[in-house]
Amino acid sequence: MGYADQRFDVNLSILFTELPLLERPAAAAAAGFTAVELWWPWTDTPTPGRSELDALRKALQDSGTRLVGLNFYAGRLPGPDRGALSLPGEESERFRANVDVAADFAASVGCKALNALYGNRAEGVDPAAQDELALENLAAAARAADRVGAILLVEALNKPESPLYPLVSAAAAIEVVDRVNAATGLGNAKFLLDVYHLSMNGEDVAAAIDAYAAKTGHVQIADSPGRGAPGTGSLPLEELLDRLGKAGYDGWVGLEYKAGDRPSARSFDWLPRSARPAH
């Protein structure tokens, strides 16, 4: 087991950000990777023009990289926002406008996982009303994902960095996953298990893996503290990924860490080049 047995992909919204968006797939390919993931790349619009979508699709195809994970519109990310779907008014309307756009783009590049960030608690809004709106919008997202043969991901973030985000434990995210599946009957809502976020919340990551591997649809890693590459912190990432494998998870592992002050390509020195292409 170990790193060589994983299916890694590179998150192009946190790595290779020194390059323009359309140059990042080729940079990932030059570093030896064949799979990538993205946060919603157009933070200012949920409905970019066809030419922008076509250009990103071409960049992926020309580089020979496959998009394996895509966020729905989530507001300003990175930045102050943590999703849009539970925010009443304009932001949830923007999320709804994005649902089919994101699903159709995912379908056009063979992407089978769409991540819907829940959104922060809004001042002066009843949390129960936000949760009701969230369920309605997540159900719509799950149906759109199902229409294109994809899964819907629900992610737990960490409270120190996202104090207004309500899903700051594996159990909280799993509860939402179960609620969405009950509402739609589709069963395609899954947990996005981000090892870094769970660790920052003080969770027993190994116990979370044992409890929720069967409901996990995607995994992301960064070391902690610092959110750097494996080996820059104290998390036993190789052991945790082995544990996931033994628990039955055989999906993608997104590299969602900060390169620090090095060029992104140098931040992969921990991973032998032979282990970088997806297999």
UniProtKB/TrEMBL annotation:
Record-linked InterPro entries: HyI-like, Sugar_Epim/Isomerase, Xyl_isomerase-like_sf, Xyl_isomerase-like_TIM-brl
Transmembrane segments: none
Domain Xylose isomerase-like TIM barrel: 26-272
Domain of life (superkingdom): Bacteria
Family: Belongs to the hyi family.
PANTHER family in the record: HYDROXYPYRUVATE ISOMERASE-RELATED, ISOMERASE
Name listed for the protein in its UniProt record: Hydroxypyruvate isomerase
Source organism (scientific name): Streptomyces spongiicola
